[in-house]
Amino acid sequence: MPIEFPITDPLLQFAVLISAVLLVQVALERVFVPGLLGLLLLGMLLGPGGAEVLPREPVVELLGQIGLIYIMFMAGLEIDLSVVRKHLGETLGFGSLAFLTSLLLGAGVGFALGFEWPSALLLGTLLSSHTLVSYPILKRLQLLGRRPVVAALGGTVLTDTLALVLLAILLQLGGGGDDGRPDQWWMPLLLLTALAALSLTGLPKLARAVFRREWVTPAEKALFALFALLALASTAELIGTEKILGAFLAGLCLNRVLAENEDTRQHVEFVGRMLFVPIFFVSTGMLLELEVVFGEARVWGIAALLCGVVVVGKAIAAWVIGARYGFSRNGRLMMLVLTMPQAAATLAITVAGQQVGLLEAEVVDAVIIVILLTCSAGPLLTRWIGDRMRARAAPDDGPVNTPTA
Q: How many C-beta neighbours within 10 Å does residue 186 have?
């Protein structure tokens, strides 16, 4: 019996999807290209805007939604809170300035394009965050102890948190919330604040109590973490905000607890990195159509403007804070290229904005192009500048980590 496209059998959809994801990731790792790029392109090629091999529903859509909240959960988990406290001045300075410059420049572009104010601010918001896709390269080059790197890593906490909080406000004001009453925008935020206070106080204690039990296996501990993730994500949505806020909150709540339980953390991360997160990127790639990539000049024009916002906004913050704390030129360049890639939080905010009608399809297409470009350039530039930093040690950039045997 011949196979008809798009494939309608959910089991066959899943089999094709997993096979394609595996092949793409294995192939790209061999040539040191970020797997994220291949997954986005894979979604574009297989989806409705490409060869129409796979539909977005039901398999890709469902697993992609879980992948979205998993990304934000892991973003909360991977924040090194001790590093943030140790370098608080540099972290707060760089994070707040990078957020503000990108937000204002992005909103300015939105207004220039004729967007209404909620959409313009949301455009600035999605560009104000960044994703540390070059983190593995830093680890391999042993540059994690350098002060410019610490400032960039710590600044991620502030930029992502501020971006998500502003997202919640804009969704209530611009999207009207779930009840369609924008005049009540403050109520979901009040409830979110209460949820955060209760969760940050109670969930770590509950998790430690569960994890201390000798009869609880690592797999069961991982299931508890997944329960906490889904419970907070669902609760955040029920009170009128976005599930990605609840997922990020769950990651912050379990940050220290899972850091103390490495086996459990590996179980939790394995599930997300193996299945849900890759499929989210494929799902997002399906939003982009091939004819847009090759034929829509306006989309590429918007993408060029957004790339300019990203580079200029992060560069201003890197040079101002770098000058304030005496970082070398290479150190400032490293801060720029580390925070240039737009991926996880940017995608999450873009998808949320599109779902409530604040972002049009051409803007979503432009954002995906920005993600492709910045995530291609970022790791390559990080490797190049990282080699220069190791070769030309600057005292003001902090200690040089020597290779270990």
A: 11
CA distance 75 to 60: 22
Lowest mean pLDDT: which of 77-81, 102-106, 249-253, 357-361?
A: 77-81
Q: Is residue 163 part of a domain?
A: yes
Amino acid type, 26: V
Q: Are 97 and 321 in contact (CB under 8 A)?
A: yes
The answer as to whether 5 is a domain residue is: no
> What pLDDT is attached to residue 404?
38
Q: Give the range of the structural domain holding residue 375, as residue numbers without chain letter.
A: 64-397
> CATH code at 139?
1.20.1530.20
Q: 370 lies in a domain?
A: yes
Distance between CA atoms of 323 and 332, rounded to whole angstroms?
A: 8
Q: Supply the pTM of this predicted model.
A: 0.74
Mean pLDDT in residue range 188-205: 89
- The pLDDT-based confidence of 105 (bands split at 50, 70, 90) is very high
**What Cα–Cα distance (Å) separates residue 334 from each residue in 86, 234, 337?**
20, 38, 5
Report for 99-108, 165-174, 353-362: range of highest mean pLDDT: 99-108
pLDDT tens per residue, range 38-47: 888 888 888 8
Q: Tell me if residue 91 falls in helix, strand or coil.
A: helix
C-alpha 242/C-alpha 174 separation (Å) is 14
Q: Are 102 and 298 in contact (CB under 8 A)?
A: no
Buried (b) or exposed (e) across 232-245, using 16+ Cβ within 10 A?
A: bbebbbebbbbbbb
State whether residue 353 is helix, strand or coil.
helix
The answer as to whether 13 is a domain residue is: no
Q: How many domains does the chain have?
A: 1
